[in-house]
Amino acid sequence: MSGNKVSRQKPCHHCRSASAPPGTSTIHYEKSWLYRHCSSLQQRDRQAQKAGQLFSGLLAMNVVFLGSAFISSMIFNHVAITLADVWILLSILKVLCLCWIIYYLLGTSRQPHAVLYRDSHAGPIWIRGSLLLFGSFSILLNVFQIGYSVIQIHCKSKVEIVFPSIEILFVSTQAFFLWHHSKDCIQVQHNLTRCGLMLTIATNLLLWLLAVTNDSLHMEIESQLREVEQRLAGNETNLCICPNTTTCKVFQKGYILLYPFNTEYCLICCSILYVMWKNVGRRISHHVPHTKPKFKLQGVVFGPLLGTATVIVGICVFMIYQIQATGSAPNHHVFVMYYSYYIVLLPLMSVGAVTGTIIHALEKRELDTLKNPTRSLDVILLMGAALGQIAMSYFSIVAIVATNPKDLLNSLILSYSVLLIFQYITQNIFIIDGLQRQPFASPTKEEEVNKEQNHEAHNQRRVSVLELGQEFRRVSLSYIHTYSHLSWKRKALREISFFLVLCNIILWIMPTFGAHPVFENGLEKSFYGYSTWFAIVNFGLPLGVFYRMHSVGGLLEVYVSA
């Protein structure tokens, strides 16, 4: 590939974004020596863009295959390839990514006409907020890992301290980069930027793969902890064991608690980086509307009430489960309670999703056919992430039907698995159909009048309790007035979307913070074997957690567009 060349020809009016300076007359067309004989400049640009995407994609594929070979060798032949070797490889990749990110921040993005266009759909605030949240937890996780290794420095390798230190620098720098530049449609140094983005994507995928495999190891240690403690009672032959101190226990428990957030952080970074990769060299027409409807908690009453009740009950179930299932003798009834909660909730979510899909079919809103890499990625992620939990459900169904489906707990697990598959399918259809619809028209006159009244009332000074009470009554009446003037379709869509948002939040919280009955009930583990079921769980569980988090963002988009 050759470098990018700047063309000084005056661009056509449909190639310039509204965000570009009025006097801009420079378009950075891509060129490649493979297509230098093309007569049309636009055709050369398109062909060079495809060639650059192909080359950068091949680079990422080779890096992922190399890293996967290292991680697989570590799992199956840990004598020749150790965890330290994998850490060294990943550290080299992270240093290369850091060098490119710093070069992008200080060099590429500051060049003249580098960012003429910004994708308004890319990097919404909910996904950037999730990026900062999970990034902060990942940094704290590495701090705990460093502290735990320092306490056991007499039996730990120096690599176990260096690797998380580099990880902290990588996570913080990458989070800063994605927060400020996730919407960029870079117009210079196309091939270098594509390769840098793909290298960073490959590195995050390998970090996710390593986190999944290591998660299986520490879950195995946790499940057999009581047996180990019994065998080591009064025996000090093991020199590398956590001393009975509060600091060591805090580091150990904190590391186990925060571990799932690291896998979520890697997946979020991959999704944002992929959208940036698709936007390299993209020129957005100024005819595309840049104004998006904003989130307003109006027009919803029953959805928040029912969703809040669901969250409160879910938290209570989760706390009881954590207390009893992690005890010395897990109670049979706690599994019955856990699966019963899901069996009640999943049909409600499915009915809501089916109802919303029917309302979408009755609407007169046209489909949004404009090119949107973010929306295309959302659909791919929703479908792909759902496969993990669906696969686990089918494995559970086979195990139960082949053993004893008439047992009470087995019957609940069977019902849970079938309902979960149906809920995933119906919710995906509802979200994808809603994302492809154009937003409703501008607010009605009544809504505009209410908005002006609320704004004027907000600016007035309150001087007495009586006026405060009158203002509260005014706001309440305005909210009821706005709710009553919405059409029944918009009401239903908002209620359903908000209810599903809260349901997915609680279904994200429970497995993220340690509720894993698919492993702890022992049914599938005894049927498939310890190692096989661990591999299935560690493939499906992180994808299921990521699906719940990502579906919240999609449902919020559906709510806002309604």
From TrEMBL:
The keyword Zinc-finger does not apply. The chain crosses the membrane at residues 54-80, 86-106, 126-149, 161-179, 191-211, 256-277, 297-321, 341-359, 379-402, 408-426, 496-515, 527-547. It is a multi-pass membrane protein. It is found in: Cell membrane. InterPro entries: Otopetrin (IPR004878). Keywords: Cell membrane, Hydrogen ion transport, Ion channel, Ion transport, Membrane, Transmembrane, Transmembrane helix, Transport. Residues 7-16 have a biased composition (Basic residues). It comes from the Eukaryota. One of its GO terms (cellular component) is plasma membrane. One of its GO terms (molecular function) is proton channel activity. Pfam families: Otopetrin. Its main location: membrane. Residues 1-23 are annotated as: Disordered. Belongs to the otopetrin family. This is OTOP3 protein.
